[in-house]
Amino acid sequence: MIKDNAGDRGRESGRANDKMAVRQKFLIAATVPALLALTACGGGGDGRAIDPVGGGSQDTGGIGGGIGGGIGADAGGPGVTLFDLGSTTGVHGEGGRIWIANSVEGTVSKIDTDTMEELGRFQTRPDTLGSPSRTSVSLSGNVAVANREGGVIKIFNQLDDCVESNGQDGIQTSAGGDNVLPWDQDECIAWYVPMDYGSQRAIAWTKGEIDTESGEVSNEKIWVSGDNESDAGVDIMLLNGDDGTIEATVNIILDAEGEGWPYRAYGGAVDRESNFWFTTLGGAGVIVRVNLEDMSYKQWPKNHWSYGITVDSFGRPWTCEVSASRFDPETGTWKSGDTWEWVFPGFKEIDMGGCMVDGKNRLWVSAKTDFGSGYGVAAIDAETLLPLMVHEIPDHAHGISIDFEGNVWGVARDDVGPSNGTEAYKINPDTGDVQVFSGLNGAYTYSDMTGFGLTSTVNPPVL
Prior knowledge:
Blueprint lengths: L5 H26 L57 E2 L2 E2 L2 E6 L4 E6 L5 E6 L8 E6 L5 E5 L4 E4 L33 E5 L9 E3 L3 E2 L6 E2 L2 E7 L6 E7 L5 E7 L14 E4 L5 E4 L5 E6 L6 E6 L5 E4 L5 E5 L1 E6 L4 E6 L8 E11 L4 E8 L5 E7 L5 E7 L5 E4 L5 E4 L11 E5 L6 E5 L13 H4 L8
């Protein structure tokens, strides 16, 4: 667990928030005209983790390097130039942030992706019994969290946005993993909306409206699903990002339910028009698109097993587990790369969990390996759907995300693997070097937990 010093926290918070405000506006404004080539993480791996500031990282004892080596700039396919999201900053400030749900504890952790320091931990429901799982980060850097047991919360990222509400001088908010404030005391909780659903999982921010001169983002909305154990279908709601008001709802009777309740809307993501895509868990289900403009929807069959979902910069949804499957909205067809058809050293199969496409057009997935710990992350070419590399990590990575330096993040799960959901892994995609954050409590997150996924859909790639 990362330790804090109260005096240092106050000074660091002031400096960080000053930097975040400037860099946030700069990056958002810069992404609007064009998204250029993402600077890859450099460095020569020696098989050991870099020990970051704060003591939350551990030496991985030789994990690193991986199998398959790096990949050149042509990974995006012929004529494709992919994103430049900044080599040192993300939409939410210096170093970027990743928000990881501690499902068992009923909290969410805010972690600096550069220093690996836990900056705050927050309850996600008044009774702490919400079982949070999916997190989504907006272009303005704030997080929305869906509680499986019902209820949605928004938490401000920047201290300057937090609002006095508890009658004490100054802003009171969590400053680390061992500093979770009582529900009515943390003034960086923007709002909480209780919802009467037995399953609330899929969640994603829209891009909102971006001022190209100032970089300010406004009119952000939140998509979220709600499902009860009945034959009444799945509710898809659009929430006002400022206050959580439900602005629109559509009820969808699915053509096929996959594994059925409570997994009928298992994960969600948005495309470049901020339309909402979600899938059912398992096989024989559907993929569904709900249109932002009028809440109309369309569903297509999904005849393969899947767990995670993401949407790439070209507007193509992906599902992951066992196979990596890419959906073409124009033709309504799937293209799949199946692990049992691949012959790749060390890569046994795609494991259950999330997935995300990085700035080099590589789909990153959780992997089972036949070397080392048996766990890893793997990169798959998003055009050919063939494996490119696999890197070993200490435990199963249930959640997969990309930070704004191009690193891959894997989040362990509370009931799978040796860490029992206490760890998250930051992997250099080109060297395989691994840094370990420890101190989570019953973690379970797969979603756009850094905001990279949403940012990469703001504009199409430059062709």
